[in-house]
Amino acid sequence: MSFKAPSVRRRIIFPKAPTMPLTDFVRYLNAQHPLPASGLRSTTPFVSEDGRVCVHFANLRLESAYAPIVDTASGELRGHAAELHAVGLRTRQPLGADAVFVLPSDDEEFVYLDRLVRTLHALNYLTYLNRHSRGKLLLKVHPRHVASVAADHGLAFEEILRACGLLPEQITLELEIGEIADTGEANGNTVGGDEAAAHLVRAIANYKSRGYGIAVGRFGRRAGSLERDFGLLREIRPDIVKLDPLLLAAEQPLPALVERLHALGAPVMVEGLDTAHLRKDARASGIDLLQVHPPLRRLLHADVGGPAQSAAA
C-alpha cells in the first residue's frame, strides 16, 4: 500500500456549533460536504432527529453509543468510549461495525467513512455531555486510515472538532499499532513492515502534537509480535494501553504483562461486561481502567440518554 495522500483536501471553514442550533449546524455540514464520489455516499449524510445525529451511508443508518470508562480502584467515571451501531435503512437489519468498514472500495472512500463516523460520535457527544458527567471521549481510528493518509494526521478532524465546540485535548484516539505495523506484510502490499512502523510513529507524533491523547488498542493479540509492539510503545509513549479481550478470555496471567506496561508509564485498560468477576480480576491484575458494558451489551445511546439494547457490537 502506498502512503500517498488519497486526494488534496480542500479547506472548509466551519462555524462554531454552539452559535447555532444543532439542526442548523447539521444543515451547514451537509452543505459543505463534498458531492458523492461513489454510490455509497449521500449528498446529505448527516441527519438530525430529536436532538441527536445519525449518518446515512451505503443505505445504512449509522448511530452512536457510548460505553463508560471507569477507574478500577475507585469506580469513578473517567470518560466514555464511542461505539458504532448500524442498521439497514430499509431492512432495519443490524450490521456489525467491522462489516461497515469493509464497504469502501478504495483508500479515499475509506478515509471519508472513518472521518465521517468520528464526526458523528463527536456531534452526539456534545448532546450526551449535557446529561452525563464529562470526561474524555475515546474514538477509534481504523488502521487503514492511518496508513492511507500521508501526513498531517488529525488536522482535518481537528477542524471538525473545533467547529463542534470540542478540542483535541478532549479526545483520545485508539489505534491498533500491531495492525498498522503489519500493513506492509498484509494483502500483498509493497511497503515493508519497517516503513509501515515508521509511518505509524510519525502519524502518532502528528496526533500528539495537536493535543490528542493516544490509546493503543488490542495490545497483546499476537504473542509472536509482542516484543516488537513493546518497542513501538517505547517510541510512541501512549496515554493508555488497552489489552486484547482474548487475553482475558483465555484466563492468562496478566500481572507480569501489566507490570511491564506500567514500567513504560502507561495506564492499562480492559473492556468487558460489567461484572463483579471482571472488576475483581482487573484489580488483582493491576489493571487501571475498565471500559464496561452492562449485561446484554447494553450501552448508553446518544438518542435516549440512558441504557439501551445494542443492535450491533
What does this structure look like?
- With 313 residues, the chain is of the alpha/beta class.
- It has one domain: EAL domain (TIM Barrel, Alpha-Beta Barrel).
- It has helices at 22-32, 97-100, 107-129, 143-148, 155-164, 177-181, 193-209, 226-236, 245-249, 255-263, 276-285; strands at residues 46-49, 52-57, 60-71, 77-88, 94-95, 136-140, 171-175, 213-219, 240-243, 268-273, 289-293, 298-301, 307-309.
- Helix 3 packs parallel to helix 5.
- 39% of the residues are buried.
Give the arrangement of secondary structure elements:
Elements (H helix, E strand, L loop, with lengths): L21 H11 L13 E4 L2 E6 L2 E12 L5 E12 L5 E2 L1 H4 L6 H23 L6 E5 L2 H6 L6 H10 L6 E5 L1 H5 L11 H17 L3 E7 L6 H11 L3 E4 L1 H5 L5 H9 L4 E6 L2 H10 L3 E5 L4 E4 L5 E3 L4
Parallel strand pairs: 4-6, 6-7, 7-8, 8-9, 9-10, 10-11
Antiparallel strand pairs: 1-2, 2-3, 3-4, 3-11, 3-12, 4-5, 12-13
Helix pairs in contact: 3-5
The secondary structure category is alpha/beta
Low-confidence segments, ≥5 residues, pLDDT <50? Answer: 1-15, 184-191, 303-313
Gross geometry:
globular
Quickly count the helices.
11
Main sheet specs: 8 strands, mixed, barrel
For the CA atoms, what is the radius of gyration?
19 Å
Counted beta strands:
13
Q: Gap between N and C termini, in Å? A: 29 Å
Strand content: 15-25%
Determine and state the CATH class: Alpha Beta
Succession of helices and strands: HEEEEEHHEHHEHHEHEHHEHEEE
- The tally of structural domains comes to 1
Q: Could you state the CATH homologous superfamily? A: EAL domain
Helix content: 25-40%
CATH topology: TIM Barrel
Strand arrangement, largest sheet? 3-4-6-7-8-9-10-11
CATH architecture: Alpha-Beta Barrel
Q: Taking all residues together, what is the mean pLDDT?
A: 83
